[in-house]
Amino acid sequence: MLGLGTLRRVTRELRQDVAAARERDPAARTLGGSDILLTYGGVHALLTHRVAHGLYEAGLPLVPHVLSGAARVVTGVEIHPAARIGESLFIDHGTGVVIGETAEIGDNVTLYQGVTLGGTGFHRGKRHPTVESDVVVGSGAKLLGPIRVGRASKVGANSVVIHDVPANSTVVGNPGHPVRIDGRRTDPDADWAHLPDPVADAIKALAARVAELEGLLAEATGRRLEPRAEVRPMRRARGPSPAGG
Description:
It contains five helices and 15 strands. The chain has helices at 4-24, 33-39, 41-57, 63-75, 198-221; strands spanning 78-79, 84-85, 90-91, 98-99, 104-105, 110-111, 116-118, 130-131, 136-137, 142-144, 148-149, 154-155, 160-161, 169-172, 177-180. The radius of gyration is 22 Å and the shape is elongated.
């Protein structure tokens, strides 16, 4: 039942959420805890959810859903009262974030604006993602269905993920393509300009193959084909990480 134990847990989790915002948002590092608590919509949404979740687990009808709906209107973040959220979640900006009923989120996870942890189908039971600890999900990413995103992984902005993601990997694209990062922990930063791009790699490989075949054809026929249009090579983003990493 709802009691002092639940109140102490919510208070502890609130302190951790405020600390997570200060740690992972450069704009918050000069702010006090009260400033973050009063002005950060993601923190407001989490506080409301933690209270609503406690009431939901206590079996109280209607009120948890009313709180969730009010938080959605005020913050733009929609979290179902039944969703299970671990410690030190940071929702940056927050607008458009949706976390479904059977979603589970581990500790030290970072979600950017527009992220969806959505369900698929109309069946009951587990139908939303499980996001393990230390995961970073970029702006606009969609994680759909009862998939599992492994520990310390990074999901690139606007990716659509419909399959399980291995631990300590990076996912980009639609549908998402995982790229394993062996032996290196993925840090919670906002450096989406330096992520691997498997689609660009595939196009680059095809372009190289076409150029090779054109060269062989020119040797065999003595006639070189003139390009019909200028093809500019795809170049990766260079320079230091804009996130300071």
